[in-house]
Amino acid sequence: MFQSGPRLRNNGKRGAETKMLSARYAALYAAGRAMGAFSPLQIRLLDDKSISVSSICEAEQALLGQWPNKRAAVHRDACRLIAAAKDGTCNPAIAFAAFKAAAIEQRLLQPTSKSSALRMLNNVTKDLEA
């Protein structure tokens, strides 16, 4: 079980908190649903360690790294939802959306360049429009 400190330990209220947080991040999940729920995210931690995160386990490892504010509500929410996803009590895509929101808020998410396949697809669609 994922625990990043005493604030994240199961205190018997986890089920209710998970449902509340799941509803909060459901909109983020719905917004990213069309492009795939687990596309890789590039995260740069405070120690200049760059991590590619594309799974719940990788998100868990990234949350254990050096973040600007581990006490921030968004970071704690992501920790709880990732733990709940590993326990099977939360939709993994919602937990991943919470992780992404935490990385964005704490300015750790790095911009990614378009893949060569996406660039080719964009070129083809431009040719079809012309």
Task: Explain this structure.
The protein is mainly alpha-helical and 130 residues long. The chain is 54% helix and 8% strand. A hairpin with a 5-residue loop joins strand 1 and strand 2. The protein starts with 13 loop residues before the first helix and ends with a helix. The N terminus is likely disordered.
Kindly name the structural category. Answer: mainly alpha
Order of helices and strands: HEEHHHEH
Low-pLDDT stretches: 1-11, 31-36
Treating each run of at least 4 consecutive H or I residues as one helix, how many helices? 5
- The global form is globular
Strand order across the largest sheet: 2-1-3
Percent of residues in helices comes to: 40-55%
> Describe the biggest sheet?
3 strands, antiparallel
Report Rg: 16 Å
Report the portion of residues in β strands. 5-15%
- Let me know the number of strands: 3
| Mean model confidence by pLDDT | 79
Separation of the first and last Cα atoms: 54 Å
